[in-house]
Write a structure and sequence with these properties.
The protein is of the alpha+beta class. Helices cover 30% and strands 17% of the residues. The protein folds into 2 domains: 66 residues, no CATH class; 177 residues, no CATH class. It is built from 10 helices and 11 strands. The strands form 2 sheets. Strands 3, 4, 5, 6, 7, 8, 9, 10 and 11 form a 9-stranded antiparallel sheet that branches. A hairpin with a 7-residue loop joins strand 5 and strand 6. The longest helix is centred in the first third of the chain and has 19 residues. It is globular. The protein binds zinc ion (2 copies). This is EID1-like F-box protein 3. It comes from Salvia divinorum. InterPro entries: EID1-like, F-box-like_dom_sf.
């Protein structure tokens, strides 16, 4: 979280000092050169209000498109120059930042301390995985979910919490949203989306979590071990207890089915039919 926050603490330059930088073509070339590195964009957008506005209007979207092209094409249904629900900065943050968890936010997880958010070294988002998080009646929705990021539940303890995140395509038109509204589920008190700060629904409260399939997909330890929240803009964040793996197990999780069109996030283009990657570092 530190570096994400520190972006706003970067000293503002005076206008004459940076006016030459506010040139879209120049910035485009610079960011192509640094492979659309998210930390660089955080720093640049903190330099002045003009650069911040330019990033918000253009650069965050370009970063998402360059770093996770297929996932973005799927989420926008090919119209990548359009707006996206919740905004491009929030989606970029979701792609590259594990939000951790506020200890008071979880219903089923008694956490003795908050789990700190951080830039994710590498994240793998998958639409096939996302299907395991949809209630049977909502399987027509498109949801991308990341692999869980491992956090120690307490200092020096052996219990491991998995933190994961995801995003719906066209959430306003989704069956999941329709069911949440139909069931008249209220927003969760005291919990906000770590990506866009909007209010969230608890999918646990809504009884819309297919516990077994979601737990199996996450490599989690059984019934009641999975919970997640979905915000007004269709961003998902959640927790699970992870089975403690020996080093021999490799921590690879459930790999029984090869994904059709998942998305990794990494610096190197890893195309082919499988997935692509975007790395935050
Ligand atoms: Zn994490
Ligand atoms: Zn959100």
């Amino acid at each position: 979280m530190g570096e994400w926050r520190s972006a706003s603490q970067v000293m503002r330059l005076s206008e004459p000092a940076n006016s030459g930088l506010v040139n879209e073509r120049v910035l485009f070339l610079v960011f192509e050169h640094v492979k659309w590195d998210i930390r660089t964009l955080c720093r640049v957008s903190a330099v002045s209000w003009k650069l911040r506005a330019l990033a918000k209007r253009l650069l965050w979207r370009e970063l998402c498109i360059h770093r996770a092209p297929r996932m973005i094409a799927a989420l926008t249904e090919g119209a990548t120059n359009s707006r996206i629900i919740g905004g491009w900065p929030a989606l970029a943050k979701l792609l590259f930042f594990c939000g951790g968890c506020d200890s008071a936010a979880a219903r089923q997880f008694r956490l003795s301390r908050p789990l700190r958010g951080h830039f994710a070294g590498e994240s793998r988002f998958s639409k096939t995985s996302g299907r395991s998080f949809l209630a049977r009646s909502c399987r027509g929705d498109v949801l991308y979910v990341s692999d869980p990021c491992e956090h120690a539940a307490e200092e020096g303890g052996s219990d491991v919490v998995g933190v994961y995140r995801g995003v719906f395509r066209s959430f306003f038109k989704s069956r999941t949203r329709e069911r949440l509204i139909g069931k008249q589920i209220g927003f969760e008190e005291g919990v906000r989306c770590p990506y866009c700060a909007a209010r969230v629904w608890s999918m646990t409260a809504a009884r819309l979590i297919p516990q077994k399939t979601a737990a199996r997909k996450l490599g989690s330890s059984g019934d009641g071990a999975v919970e997640y929240f979905v915000c007004l803009n269709g961003h998902l964040h959640g927790l699970c207890w992870l089975v403690h793996l020996s080093s021999d197990d490799g921590g690879g999780g459930d790999e029984e089915d090869e994904d059709d069109d998942g998305s990794f996030c990494s610096g190197d283009e890893d195309d082919g039919d499988r997935n692509y990657i975007a790395r935050a570092s």
